[in-house]
Amino acid sequence: xxxxxxxxxxxxxxxxxxxxxxxxxxxxxxxxxxxxxxxxxxxxxxxxxxxxxxxxxxxxxxxxxxxxxxxxxxxxxxxxxxxxxxxxxxxxxxxxxxxxxxxxxxxxxxxxxxxxxxxxxxxxxxxxxxxxxxxxxxxxxxxxxxxxxxxxxxxxxxxxxxxxxxxxxxxxxxxxxxxxxxxxxxxxxxxxxxxxxxxxxxxx
Length: 204
Hints:
With 204 residues, the chain is mainly β. The protein has 1 helix and 13 strands, in the order H-E-E-E-E-E-E-E-E-E-E-E-E-E. It has an 11-stranded mixed sheet, with no helix packed on it. Strands 7-10 form a two-stranded antiparallel ribbon. A hairpin with a 2-residue loop joins strand 4 (74-79) and strand 5 (82-95). 21% of the residues are buried.
């Protein structure tokens, strides 16, 4: 087979791969009976920089695929062959108790349940943004209360009907009183990640 034929087969194969792997998705609020409402649907997109999920230069715009959420509400995500429920059970501002070093955290307590028909690997991308667009990633909290000892697994295989839960810590600046907390879900073939967003405000 000559080189032009090899090249043509490579291009056709690449288009077929992208066509199969591109996906639409939706997130919806679930009520206690299991019904859903307030659906937000994503759009198909081409492969790009989602392979770098930690690079965020500004908060996602309102025109992006963002579902504004409430603490305690369950949200069903149906995306790229996966179906699971996400609930932010609680969010609190906390700090370490060290005498010389005081580190400030946003502590977020999540529950994630696989409600699909197949086992899924849940890989979590949770972070916070302040009003200037500065991004704060998850970390390990040291010197905080024992109430936060059950931590959320960041990569876990969930068989159908099982769940994972626990606290995730985000180190923040001392003077912050309000943050947008994001749960990002996407895949490596999507250039426009999808988000669930909670507005977290410190009670003085």
